[in-house]
Amino acid sequence: MGIGSWMSLWFALALPVIIILYLFKRIYIDTPVPSHMLWRRVLLNMEANRPWQKLQNRLLLWLQLLAAALLVLALMQPFIWKTGGHQGHTVLIADTSASMMALPQAAEETEEDSKLAEMKRKLNTYIREAGADEEITLIRLGSRPEVLLTRENNRETLSRTIDGLSAEYGKAAYHETLSLAAALTRGEEGRVFLYTDTRWPEQAGNDGIVFEVPVQIVSIGPEQTANAAIEQFGVKRSAGEEPESTGNEDSDGTHYGVAVIRNDGPASELQLDLYGDGKLIASRDFTADPGRRTTVEFNSIPSAEVYRLSLKPEDGYLLDNESFAFLEQAGATKVWLISKGNLFLEKALQLTGAQVTRITEAKADGTGTAEPPPIPESKPDVIVIEGTLPDYAASGAWAKLLAETPQWMIGGADECVNLEHAETVTAKHPVTRYLQLKEPPAGRLIDAPIPAWGKSILTVGGKTAAYAGTENGRPKLVFLFRLEDGDLTLKPEFPVLVDNAVTWLKSGLRTGLGRAEAGTELDIPVAQDAATAVWSPMDGYALNSGAEPIPAVRMKSGALSAKQPAPSIPGLWRLDVTGSDGEAQPGYWLAVAADPLESAAAPRQDLLNALVADSGQPASGNDGGQGDSDYDEHSARSAEAGDIHRAEAPLLKWIVLIVLLLILVEWGVYQRGRSI
């Protein structure tokens, strides 16, 4: 039971006034007695002036006191709480922003303990205890406002929809969702419940939005203040790293990484683990001051395709505890050319925009043994081998490098055979794109077997002159002829052939697209004949949460559009692109992050006032139905407990009815003389 106006309790002072009036009333009893009893009149006059004796057995007095007390109670506007009493339109707003995935304590808890799971439980509780005729509209607050159900009263449908709610990690549409809720309840009887953790950015409010119905906030989860986050992370090449194209040069080959860590909680001892291609390469321990940002540097780290930074110990908000980075891309492909010298080939490779490094064999020492050239620390994207494979590449570090890098082999040491006829046939392949070779590239071909992974892309005189395929997961191209045995290098098709070859060999590599917020639009430099593409989760939160591959479905004129939305779940993603000919094209890495405002936002203590500003409608942290608009302590406790399905039932009409009955009884008592 509740009281609407405690100020009306002052009217209870009328009760002692009634008693005082009875105390000062002189009451005489007319009774016929014999004359010899006249002396008793003196005693009767004395009793008539005894105050407290006048209150004995005065039924009329008690009836009047009861009626007055009930009238005072009516002025105090009493009410009782009842379950499922609302019969109108109710709008439920479910906050599914990224901050709702925070865990109450720490990362050892599961997603079943997240704020999102708690919100689902509270929503289902409301649905079970809602009024029989209550119509419910469910709105999802995510990257865009979404009306999931409209004026629905089927409990199973509502519960099934609530259970299917999932978090959205991009920028949340707070203002747009509130505007939609205000529009849906304009000009009608209803109420709005907002289920949220109140971690809203300062600029997220209801500027210009006026609610015409009561607004109620249901707080989800405990207030979280301790959170450490990786705000920025990047890796760049060290100065002077790239070897020039002059021969056997080496460099330090190390990289430089930097991270910025924000600490929203108390001073903490934190640890950063840096991984390169899945291997731990560095760790840093440091003290994070409260409310400050700390810069952590990593010097002399080895080269890797993908770097991952992990922050420990993990807190309740996992989405900002890891970050990914890729080496800065200068746009130039690193090509190593192992050759005794071919100016035409080297210049054609440079025309592709590649940075060419020619590797030559060191001179033999006094024993006649040539020392293998040192391996530069900066790994190549493509290795082109013209002529015989060097002896030093058959084993050791060079053999391992060749096995891990896309290769283009031209010529070789095998015996050559003359051509029976000059008919040249070019197969459809990315290497032979835009080419019309009508003459043989050389006067003779190397007689060598074609491996099982090889696919013939050029035949001359019925014999394979070039084949391509994938060996050990890496693209490989082989020309079964020597460039010096023909005039191919002098033809205008040769630079096109070299460019096609380098581009196709790079398809085994992936360029880092950098970092993007979940769901934002990207400009991806896909080829014109790119037909399909698929995003695959490779690491981080996306992989750990069991995210499924996402096909890139946005098309333009039958081809894959360069504008594609980023995946909607944070983590490391890989985009695999396939051309119209079914061949793989260069792919891309992308680090997807949640909206950083969800990590940095503090609980909005003024959110309730902001929601009802200028609306003139009652609001509370509990149900805010028809009572006082003050957000008192009781309402706050009720909101935390999730007990928002209750409604106020006024008792005024019942009190007035009882008072009328008492007045009738009092009149009957007075008529019968029972008042004396």
UniProtKB/TrEMBL annotation:
Signal peptide: none
Keyword Phosphoprotein: no
Biased composition (Acidic residues): 241-251
Source taxonomy: Bacteria, Bacillati, Bacillota, Bacilli, Bacillales
Residue stretches making up the VWFA domain: 90-197
SUPFAM superfamilies, sorted: vWA-like
Region feature (Disordered): 236-255, 614-637
Protein name from the UniProt record: VWA domain-containing protein
The Aerotolerance regulator N-terminal domain, residue ranges: 8-78
InterPro entries documented for this protein: Aerotolerance_reg_N (IPR024163), VWF_A (IPR002035), vWFA_dom_sf (IPR036465)
Highest taxon, organism lineage: Bacteria
Keyword Membrane: yes
TM stretches of this protein: 6-24, 59-81, 651-670
Annotated Pfam families: BatA, VWA_2
Keywords, alphabetical: Membrane, Transmembrane, Transmembrane helix
